[in-house]
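Course assignment 3, question 2. Fill in each field.
Student: A.L.
Task: Predict the tertiary structure for the chain below.
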Amino acid sequence: MSQHYKVNSNPGHTLFGSNVRAIGLGHVWLLKCQRVLAQIYRDDIGLPGQGSPGLGRSRAVRPLTHTIGCITEEDIQKINSPSCGEARSLLRPSLESLDRAIEAADLQGAMTGQLFELAAEAYLSFGNVSHPRNNEICYQKSLNFLQRASQIEGYIMDPYLSS
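Answer field:
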C-alpha cells in the first residue's frame, strides 16, 4: 500500500510560513547555479557560448553513469573541470537548505509537492556534475523526492519531472 501525504491547507501552519528561509536559500543557490549548469551543457554538446571551446563537435549528451565501472578519461576531465567544481560548490548549500526544509516540514506535517520537486531538481543537478561513484546516491534521493511528491493527494507534478 502506498503512503499518501496530505496537503496542509491550514494557512496559519504552512511550510512556507516557518521554513521560508531554508527553502528560499535552497532555491536561491539552485538559481545561482543555473548559469554554470547551462554552460556545462553547452560545452557537452559543443555549442559555442561564453567560455565554451566552441569546437562545434556534435556528440550525444550522456550522463556519466551510462557505463558504471567504465569511466573514461573524458568523464574524469569533465567532473574535475572548473565548471563542474563551481556547480558543486553552488549546489551544496542548496542541498543542505532543502534537506533542512524537508526535515522540518516532515516534523510539522506540512509537506508540499513544490518542495519535493525543488529538492529533486537540486539532487539531479548535483548528480550530473559528480563522480559516478557518488551520483547514484543523488539520483536515488531525487527519485525518492519525486515519488513522495507524486503521493501528495491532489498535487500535479511538473510534466518535465514526472516523465
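Instructor remarks: The radius of gyration is 18 Å. The helical segments are 15-18, 20-45, 73-79, 82-108, 113-128, 132-150, 159-162.
Grade: pending
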